[in-house]
Each structure stands twice: as C-alpha cells, then as structure tokens.
Amino acid sequence: MPDNGSYLLANVGFSSKEEPLLLLQRGAEFINFYPLQKSFTLGFDTSQRFCTGWHDITKGERFVCPSSSMVDAKYEQCPACQKRTGFNPAFYHATSISEQQEARNQEPHILYLAYFGQGIVKVGISHAKRGNARLLEQGARYALILGEFPTAHIARHYEAQIAKMPGIKETVQLNKKVELATSRYDATTAQNELEATHQRITATLNVNLESKLLSFDDRYFSNDTPNLGSAHNTSDIHTVSGICIGQLGTLLFCRQDDSLLMLPLKKYVGYTMSFSDTVTPIETPAQQISLF
Q: What span, in angstroms and rounded, lies between the C-alpha atoms of 149 and 200?
C-alpha cells in the first residue's frame, strides 16, 4: 500500500501477471499500487492536468516529465515527452513516424476482435509482446484473436478492411464503456456474437483467420463478477472509497457496506490524487430493486 498523501495518477492498467495496477508518481519516483482487495479512499483534484512523463518503448522503461509540465485537459503528455516517446498508436494516419515507432512496427502484432457488450464489437491490433495487456486495458469482456502477423503494417492492412464492415467499430468511447459495464452481460451472447462476426469477416474478405476465444472477467474481479448494474458512478465527486473488488479495464469498483461504487479512472490520469488507507463514507441514491 502507498503511504497516505498526494500523488499523480500516471497510468491505469494491468501488470505482467494480468493484475489490476495503478501507477502513482511522487516526485521522481513511480510506485506500483495493486488495488484488489484493499480498502482505501482515492480523491482527485481536477483543476489542472500534468504530463505523465515519457516511455522508452525499445526498453520498456518509463520516466517522469523533466519539466513537470502542465498540459491541456485533452492530453496526457506534453509535446516534449510525446516526442521523446515517439509512439503513435494511430501511426497509419500520421504524416511521419519516429524511428522507435517504425522499429516497433516491424515486430509481430496481434489482430483481434474485442467484445464490450451486446452489439459492440471492436477490431484492433496490438504489439504481440504485450500479450493480453491491450485488451485488459480496454476492458474487453471477451475477445477473439484473429491471428499474429509479422509486422504492424500487415496487421493494420486487415484491421482497416475489417473496420469498413458494418457493425464493427475501431474505437469505443469511455462513456460508452461505462454504460455497457452497468448493462446486462451474458458470456454466451458474447461468444456467439464474436463467432458470427468472425464468420462474416472470413466470408467477406475471403481469408482464413484464426478463431481463438478469450474470456477476461476472472482477471478483472477478485471473486465472481458482481451485479455491475447496481454500481453508482462517483464521477460527480471525483472520489471513490471502500474495499476494491475489481477493475474492469480502467473502471475501478469498490464495495462500501451494501453499495457498489465505480470510478472511471482513465479520465483522471495526469491529475493529482489524494490517497488514504481509510474508508470515507459516500452516500449513494436509493437503488430500484430489479425483478430480473
């Protein structure tokens, strides 16, 4: 557990062991915080966003911003740290790319379909060495791996063709993920939708692609997945408190007495965070009892 005090939330993701992980920054130090089954209070000051630093993508190392720069609310990095990192996930839209980006592009990449909720299937590519990290960070409930390709350019070729097909998305916004997380979810429906989409892709493109199904709920939650439909989004107070029972992508879930609280941490990356190892009572609106 981190010491009580103030930190910068530098990243929300998953460890190499596929455990939920918050990366906190204090001064020049990064601190790994594994929230599952721990009791705490997180509160955010949204008055100013700060640069989250830069990455050496060739070595997998992370560094704090040398200037501790403030950034516009729509960015996570200052221009200097973005240039030092040299990584653009949408490299195929860029007019130029860095040497480190092109080196990454020449390495194997995965082509996948990610399922977030009924009717929402997204196509994407990911650096093969990252394993399932990209899918976990996005909060995919289920995924179907279509294959591994020698370079990002080849994987992107297929991704671009698939993204043109009706009903398949290239992006899913955070607000939509919050909505889907608290909607009814069924694993069998997820599998059926992914398999039907796979069949449609292979028929349309006239190609043979892999069909490897993966389920991720057991990575997100410490026990069985709770009824997420009862979760109360505490974004209005920029605070969450209780015992952490799970992290669905970047959505953090805490249990406090009989209430389930949720905070979408992705939008707080780069903001100052107060951490306490005690639980702060949070009032929630009365829940309507569901008959289903």
A: 20
Phi, psi angles (nearest 5°) of residue 46: -95, 15
Is residue 281 one of the residues assigned to a domain?
Answer: no
Q: In what order do the strands lie in the sheet with 20-26?
A: 29-33, 20-26, 5-14, 272-276, 39-45, 239-248, 251-256, 259-264, 232-233
Q: How high is the pLDDT of residue 290?
A: 46
Domain span at residue 111?
A: 103-220
Number of separate helices (H) and strands (E) present in the chain: 7, 18
173 falls within a domain = yes
Mean pLDDT, rounded, for 63-92:
91
CA distance 197 to 213: 12
Residues 243, 160, single domain; the answer is no
Is residue 206 domain-shared with residue 137, that is, in the same domain? yes
Cα distance between the two ends of the chain: 38
Please state, in angstroms and rounded to a whole number, the distance separating the CA atoms of residues 179 and 171: 15
On whether residue 94 sits in a domain, the answer given is no
For the chain, the domain total comes to: 2
Q: Which residues pair with 250 in a beta bridge?
A: none
Average pLDDT over residues 163-174: 95
pLDDT in tens, 116-162: 999 999 999 999 999 999 999 999 999 999 999 999 999 999 999 99
Residue 215 placed within a domain: yes
Neighbour-count burial for 168-199, b at 16+ CB within 10 Å, e otherwise? bbeebeeeebbebbbeebeeeebeebbeebbe
Exposure of 119 by Cβ count < 10 A (0-12 exposed, 13-18 middle, 19+ buried)? exposed
